[in-house]
Amino acid sequence: MLKILVAGFGPFPGAPCNPSGDLALALGRMRRPGLAGVKIYTHVFPTIYAAVAKELPRLLTKHDPDAVLLFGLAGRSDRVRIETRAVNAASLIHPDAMRSVPQSQKLDPKAPAELFVRPEVHRLIAAARRGGVPARLSRDAGRYVCNASLFICLDKTRRKRRPLVTFIHMPWPRTRNTRRQNAKAPNAKALFRTGEAILRALVAEARRP
């Protein structure tokens, strides 16, 4: 059986509700013929550096997934961003949900300065666009907890063939925080369709020999 870990995040300063966690849980509840033989594990991380550093390696060990699909919120964007790179750096200015900042600018002093997702996940851009939402590839996942989670996941798995790892930054759905967002942002249903399309494409990639 193919195993997929799908995760999002909880609230953080400036985002009292985080749609990425809701999307991860909703995808885990799906029952589709195309996902027969796939076990989906879901998780919502607190948007806290220390929690992600502790919980993510534990989940990788516990579930041993064939693919990891992480969702985060890019509140100022009006499109889906498929991240292709994570950097070994953290913001010392923007606090996490515990109002804490890292003690060091580097996430791990022994790790590389940057890590890249595997080329296979670049095929996900076509799937994202089929979901009906504007999407693009991105080389900048920021310096916040989202980047930290992608970096940790890539670092813990970089010497292994599996899992495939990808991180999707999603905009605010148009039904939320309408005063703060771009009017071009997609609605919640469109984002769910896009999340499902990306999940299906990732499953297809993980099934490749």
Note the run of SSEs as H and E.
Answer: EHEHEEEEHEHEH
Rg from Cα:
16 Å
Please report the distance between the alpha carbons of the first and last residues: 14 Å
Q: Which class of secondary structure composition applies to the elements?
A: alpha/beta
**How many helices?**
5
Domain count: 1
CATH class type? Alpha Beta
Overall pLDDT score: 90
Shape-level CATH architecture: 3-Layer(aba) Sandwich
Q: Which stretches are poorly predicted, pLDDT < 50 over at least 5 residues? A: none
Proportion of residues in extended strands: 15-25%
Strand order of the largest sheet: 2-1-3-8-4-7
CATH superfamily: Peptidase C15, pyroglutamyl peptidase I-like
Extended strand count: 8
Described by the principal axes of the CA atoms, the overall outline is: globular
Question: What is the helix fraction of residues, given as a range?
Answer: 25-40%
Per-chain topology:
Layout: E1 2-9, H1 19-28, E2 38-45, H2 49-63, E3 67-73, E4 80-83, E5 85-87, E6 114-116, H3 124-130, E7 135-138, H4 145-157, E8 164-170, H5 188-207
Parallel strand pairs: 1-2, 1-3, 3-8, 4-7
Antiparallel strand pairs: 4-8, 5-6
